[in-house]
């Protein structure tokens, strides 16, 4: 796949460390992502991938290290801060309210309010506007969603994933982080998610993708960063390494060799 | 990525059943009593006005509890808040005017709601245990405040506005109920805050990830629940021309049963104000019908318990299917 990777750095992570009590989940991890680039974040179970993502998206605070967005240092102490920096995260559990419908989830905590200033001050919802805007966001991803008033718990895994990605992109994110977006999906739905990733990176969005699936990584990613027991042990162009080499990096087999 | 037609239909039918359940049971009970009590005053406008008047405090408590349940909390302290706020209101009324009496009673509600909320968040203990504890404390305070004495209310304006009054022929208790119901309905269905309440109850993790301050939302819900109970205390005091430590004592079971049968989930995330109102009216109607049929208070209590169990059983079944 040919992608015109813009040479501007969208996200830079410098020497991030994080421990939970006695467990050091991250040790001086650094990497960068350019605009329009898809970077795979790989590593075995417990390597620290989710922890790294949570530090970038404001769920956890790193103990040390810095994060730069568009080459400016930023302080991210909450999910709202992350969003203000243009970082949107599609969490492993998707962070959706199952009892809410698609539109309600798309606009959760970013509701469009009524035009009347008094009603808007009260927090009165403009349901129509949200439905229209939500529809546009989903259409932009070519996703086939049956009805915008369908509750999330009635959707298939792939449809939920599409809604979660649409939510992230809908907010004009420059950086989208996805934690195992295809883990629970079948072949066809995984392919659809790959397609979504291609669409948004083609729109200039930087994507950080956590995955255990080598096939998925080699199909969608430009680069791969491998974590091993909390440290970053490789940062390679996916085209230049084989799947087998990636696997041996992930399992730590090549740590001693390197 | 297409939901099959049959799946969709099934779900729609299920949803219909769930939301409509309270309507079915309401009209079924109405029909049973109408037939069984055809030779009494059960089916008269007067009797129904009576039911509405009598259930007004319970309805308002049920609306308040709906907010607590929406975020996934139970509030067992509401019955005791009724007594304490009514007593505080009645006592203040002896020395000051109506505004201060109202403010004092509501302050009791707000304070207890805040204490409940803060204890739950700080100690990370379930709302069931915390509010069971505050229920004990507040009941004790209410009994101690006047040494079990009742406090009479002679202020005519107060008993008019919170009790027997009528405006253009409409009982004030009905007006209170409708006003609170309207506000609650709008908050839950039309305002962003309502979404955040249900999100905090339905999936706290998702709510947090989307930047909602879940702790604050939960705290607010408990303050609403407790304040509604305080208002119910004022309505009792107004209707009965006085306050007593026993007020609200027997209401807890009725309120929980009313809300549960109305379709609000006992586990958070789904709430219905109309359901809570119909549930409360249903409980009032059953009480009224049982009295007219000659059943004792004990038997009414048994009936309430059975209804609660039925409502909870339906709720659990839904949870498993959902
Ligand atoms: N909130 C937490 N409290 C304590 N320890 C944690 C917490 N979150 C993660 N850890 C620990 O940090 C380490 C890294 O966990 P993390 O979830 O980041 O791994 P991961 O790479 O995402 O794994 P997986 O592939 O299973 O999702 C693990 O040892 C884990 O037990
Ligand atoms: Mg993980």
Bound molecules: adenosine-5'-triphosphate, magnesium ion
Strand tally of chain B, please? Answer: 4
Question: pLDDT average of chain B, as an integer?
Answer: 90
Oligomer: heterodimer
> Distance N terminus to C terminus of chain B?
21 Å
Class from secondary-structure proportions of chain B: mainly alpha
Record the strand order, biggest sheet of chain A.
Answer: 6-7-8-3-9-10
Commentary on this structure:
The complex is a heterodimer of chains A (258) and B (322). Chain A is of the alpha/beta class. Chain A is 33% helix and 26% strand. Chain A contains 9 helices and 10 strands. In chain A, a hairpin with a 2-residue loop joins strand 4 and strand 5. In chain A, helix 5 packs across helix 6 and helix 6 runs parallel beside helix 7. With 322 residues, chain B is an all-alpha fold. Chain B is 77% helix and 2% strand. Chain B is built from 13 helices and 4 strands. In chain B, the strands form 2 sheets. Chain B has a two-stranded antiparallel sheet with strand order 1-4. In chain B, helix 2 packs across helix 11 and helix 4 packs antiparallel against helix 10. The longest helix of chain B is centred in the first third of the chain and has 32 residues. Chain B starts with a helix and ends with a helix. Chains A and B meet through helix 2 and helix 6 of A and helix 1, helix 8 and helix 9 of B. The structure holds adenosine-5'-triphosphate (ATP) and magnesium ion.
């Amino acid at each position: 796949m040919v992608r015109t990777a813009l040479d501007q750095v969208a996200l830079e992570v410098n020497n991030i460390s994080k421990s939970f009590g006695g467990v050091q989940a991250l040790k001086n991890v650094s990497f960068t992502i350019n605009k329009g680039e898809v970077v795979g974040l790989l590593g075995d179970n417990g390597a620290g991938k989710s922890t790294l993502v949570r530090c970038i998206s404001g769920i956890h605070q790193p103990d040390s290290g810095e994060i730069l967005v568009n080459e400016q240092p930023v302080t991210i102490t909450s999910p709202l801060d992350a969003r203000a920096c243009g970082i949107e995260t599609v969490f492993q559990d998707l962070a959706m309210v199952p009892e809410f419908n698609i539109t309600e989830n798309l606009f959760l905590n970013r509701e469009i309010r009524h035009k009347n200033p008094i009603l808007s001050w009260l927090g009165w919802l403009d349901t129509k506007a949200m439905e229209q805007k939500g529809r546009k966001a989903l259409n932009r991803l070519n996703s086939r969603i049956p009805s915008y008033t369908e509750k999330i718990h009635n959707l298939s895994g792939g449809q939920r994933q599409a809604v979660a990605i649409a939510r992230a992109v809908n907010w004009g994110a420059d950086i989208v982080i996805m934690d195992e977006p295809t883990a629970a999906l079948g072949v066809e739905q995984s392919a659809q998610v790959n397609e979504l990733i291609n669409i948004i990176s083609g729109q200039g969005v930087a994507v950080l993708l956590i995955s255990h699936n080598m096939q998925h990584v080699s199909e969608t990613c430009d680069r791969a960063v491998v974590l091993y027991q909390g440290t970053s042990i490789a940062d390679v162009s996916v085209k230049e390494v084989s799947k087998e080499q990636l696997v041996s990096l992930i399992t730590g087999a090549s740590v001693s060799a390197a | 990525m297409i939901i099959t037609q049959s799946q969709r239909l099934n779900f729609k039918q299920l949803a219909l059943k769930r939301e409509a359940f309270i309507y079915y049971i309401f009209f079924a009970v109405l029909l049973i009593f109408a037939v069984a009590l055809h030779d009494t005053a059960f089916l008269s406008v007067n009797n129904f006005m009576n039911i509405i008047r009598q259930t007004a405090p319970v309805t308002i408590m049920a609306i308040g509890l709906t907010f607590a349940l929406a975020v996934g909390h139970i509030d067992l302290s509401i019955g005791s808040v009724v007594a304490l706020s009514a007593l505080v209101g009645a006592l203040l009324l002896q020395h000051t005017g109506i505004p201060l009496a109202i403010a004092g009673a509501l302050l009791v509600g707000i304070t207890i709601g805040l204490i409940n909320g803060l204890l739950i968040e700080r100690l990370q203990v379930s709302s069931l245990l915390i509010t069971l504890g505050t229920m004990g404390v507040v009941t004790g305070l209410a009994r101690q405040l006047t040494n079990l004495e009742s406090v009479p209310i002679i202020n005519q304006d107060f008993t008019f506005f919170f009790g027997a009054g009528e405006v253009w022929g409409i009982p004030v208790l009905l007006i209170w109920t409708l006003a609170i119901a309207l506000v609650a309905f709008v908050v839950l269905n039309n305002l962003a805050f309502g979404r955040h309440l249900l999100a905090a109850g339905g999936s706290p993790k998702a709510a947090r990830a989307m930047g909602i301050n879940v702790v604050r939302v939960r705290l607010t819900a408990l303050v609403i629940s407790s304040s509604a109970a305080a208002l119910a205390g004022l309505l009792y005091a107004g209707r009965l021309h006085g306050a007593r430590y026993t007020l609200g004592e027997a209401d807890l079971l009725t309120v929980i049963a009313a809300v549960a049968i109305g379709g609000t989930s006992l586990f958070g995330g789904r709430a219905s104000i109309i359901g809570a109102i119909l549930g409360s009216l249903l409980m009032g109607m059953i009480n009224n019908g049982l009295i007219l049929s000659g059943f004792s208070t004990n038997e009414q209590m048994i009936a309430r318990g059975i209804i609660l169990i039925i409502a909870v059983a339906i709720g659990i079944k839904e949870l498993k299917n959902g």
